[in-house]
């Protein structure tokens, strides 16, 4: 069940590219709208008062 | 001493959530809508999160469920092969005559959502096969076969079978790509 060298190399080409696609998306950073949304959710909860 | 609210940790997972969503949908508008829905769901259902378990896995599960339910609802076009995420990409140096990264993105876009998802979870986000299976609600063997088929299909589409194509990944090429990527952002 040993993979051939060509197969392994093929897989590493794919994985390299895959990681790069993902990392490029990571590096884009996060738009402010999400932090604003979290703040709004937090405030909404606070204005409802503590439910505990 | 009150336990910290797990919701405080949501913000730390935002970049990964967004990267997963963008890579899965290849469309940043769709991805951002998904992330937004997921945040609201996570916030309001935080009692369903088991403290001490993997929050990122929990969030990714909500994220992918959001994606599949919106895909079912609106059979809109989700593929955006020519969209923002294929623009401005690093080009391979001329000596190998190919644009590998562009090739990869185009090939990646042709996979099924399920194949793309499996590859992203296991190959890019660092989850185990078991975790990925759990998140997708399928057997471990299913995730393994999805990733195998996805890799096979990508290799076909990128024509990685010939030796010449494989030589494209030498270090010099990688560093050129990395350098030009750094300046484009």
What does this structure look like?
The complex is a heterodimer of chains A (52) and B (185). Chain A is an all-alpha fold. Chain A has one domain. Chain A has helices spanning 5-27, 32-48. The longest helix of chain A has 23 residues, at 5-27. Chain A is rod-shaped, with a radius of gyration of 22 Å. The termini of chain A are far apart. The mean pLDDT of chain A is 85. Chain B is mainly α and 185 residues long. Chain B has two domains: 10-87, Rna Polymerase Sigma Factor, Chain: A (Orthogonal Bundle), CATH 1.10.1740; 88-185, Orthogonal Bundle (Arc Repressor Mutant, subunit A). Helix content of chain B is 61%, strand content 0%. Chain B has nine helices and no strands. The longest helix of chain B is centred in the middle third of the chain and has 19 residues, at 55-73. Chain B is globular, with a radius of gyration of 18 Å. The chains are: A mainly alpha (52), B mainly alpha (185). At the A-B interface, helix 1 and helix 2 of A face helix 1, helix 2, helix 4, helix 5 and helix 7 of B.
Main pleated sheet of chain A? none
Mean pLDDT reading of chain B? 82
Compute the number of strand runs of chain A: 0
Describe the sheet with the most strands of chain B: none
The secondary structure category of chain B is mainly alpha
- The general outline of chain B is globular
Q: Which parts of chain B are unreliable, with pLDDT below 50 for 5 consecutive residues or more?
A: 78-98
Low-confidence stretches of chain A: none
User: How many DSSP helices of chain A?
Assistant: 2
Distance between the termini of chain A: 58 Å
Full CATH superfamily name of the largest domain in chain B: Winged helix-like DNA-binding domain superfamily/Winged helix DNA-binding domain
The figure for the number of domains of chain B is 2
3D shape of chain A: rod-shaped
Oligomer: heterodimer
Helix content of chain A: over 70%
- Sheet-strand content of chain A, in percent, reads under 5%
Reported CATH architecture of the largest domain in chain B: Orthogonal Bundle
């Amino acid at each position: 069940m040993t993979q051939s060298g060509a197969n392994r190399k093929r897989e590493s080409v794919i994985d390299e590219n895959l990681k790069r696609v993902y990392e490029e998306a990571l590096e884009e950073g996060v738009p402010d709208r999400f932090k604003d949304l979290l703040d709004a959710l937090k405030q909404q909860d606070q204005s409802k008062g503590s439910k505990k | 001493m009150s336990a910290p609210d797990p919701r405080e940790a949501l913000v730390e997972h935002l970049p990964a959530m967004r990267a997963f969503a963008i890579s899965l949908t290849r469309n940043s508008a769709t991805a951002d809508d998904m992330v937004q829905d997921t945040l609201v769901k996570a916030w309001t259902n935080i009692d369903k999160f088991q403290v001490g378990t993997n929050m990122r896995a929990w969030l990714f599960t909500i994220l992918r469920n959001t994606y599949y339910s919106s895909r079912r609802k609106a059979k809109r076009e989700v593929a955006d092969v020519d969209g923002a995420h294929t623009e401005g990409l690093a080009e391979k140096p001329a000596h190998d005559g190919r644009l590998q990264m562009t090739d990869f993105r185009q090939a990646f876009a042709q996979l099924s959502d399920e194949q793309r998802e499996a590859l992203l979870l296991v190959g890019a986000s660092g989850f185990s096969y078991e975790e990925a299976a759990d998140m997708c609600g399928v057997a471990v063997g299913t995730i393994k076969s999805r990733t195998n088929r996805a890799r096979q299909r990508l290799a076909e589409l990128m024509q990685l079978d010939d030796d010449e194509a494989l030589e494209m990944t030498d270090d010099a090429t990688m560093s050129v790509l990395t350098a030009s990527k750094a300046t484009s952002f």
